[in-house]
What we know:
Elements: H1 6-23, H2 25-30, H3 38-55, H4 57-65, H5 68-88, H6 92-98, H7 104-111, H8 114-127, H9 131-139, H10 141-163, H11 174-197, H12 204-207, H13 217-256
Helix pairs in contact: 1-3, 3-5, 4-5, 5-10, 5-13, 8-10, 8-11, 9-10, 11-13
Amino acid sequence: MWENHNSVLIGTLLLALIYLWAVGPLRKRRGWAPKFPVGRALTFFAGLLVLLLALNGPLHDLSDYYLFSMHMVQHLMLTQIMAPLLILGLPAWLVSAIVLKPGMRRAARFWGHPLVAGGLFIVAIVFWHLIPFYDLMMRNHNIHIATHLMFMVTAVMAWWCVCCPLRDAGRLSEPAQMLYLFLLGVPMQVVAAVITLSDTVLYPWYATAPRTWGLSPLDDQQLGGLLMWVPGGLGLWIAITAVWLVWARRSGQRGMRPTESSDEEPPLTLPEISG
C-alpha cells in the first residue's frame, strides 16, 4: 500500500519550485550563468526523490508501525543519500551569488564548520537513539516529524563542508574531508554496535509492534543495528574513496597546469557533474 503524506509532498514541492526559480528565471534576470545546469538539477531532484521515497509509501509505514530495521533504512536514506545529493545539486554560481553575500558567508562558514555541523549531527543521532527519547519520538507524531527535520537539516549541515562547490563557502581541502568523514562515522558506529550487540530489545515501541517478515523484535533490532553499522559505515567509506580519487585527479591536473584554479570544481563528482 502506498500512502502519501501531505506535509512531505508540500515541503518537497516547495523545495523543487524554489530551486527551479533560482536556476531558471532568477538566473536569467541576474545574469549569473548562461546555461541551465542540467546535471546539477538532475542531482538535486534525485535528492528530492530519495526524500519522497523515504517518507512516503511502504517504507514509511514499515518503519513507523512494524520494523526498527526499516526505520534505520529510512534514516540512512535521509542522512547519507538525500543530504549530499541536494548539496551536489547546487551550481557553484548559485552558491557564490547567494551564500557568499556579506553576512551569509559568515553564517555559512559557521553553521557548515565541521565542529559545529558535524557535532550537531552526531548529537542528533546519539540523542534520538537513547531509549527514552526514541520511545517518545515513536509515540508522539509531531515529535517524530521534528526529529526527521532535525536529521535532515543537520545532515545537510554535516555534508556541506564535503560537497559544497566552493572553498570560500566552507568546503574543506580533500585530505581534511577524508579525516572529517572518518571521524563523523565513529559515533554512529558506536551507536550501531550497542544496538546490534544488545541481547535484549531496547525500544518498547517495536517490542509490541505487529510482527512482519518473520522477524522477532530482537532479530529486527539486530538487523537494524547491522544496517546502521555496515551499510552506514560503508557509505562513508565510499565517500572517502570518492574524495581521494578527486584529490588524486586534481593533484595530477595541478602538476600539469599549476596556474589553473580548481576552487569551483565539485568535490564528489565521479564523473564530474556539469553546471
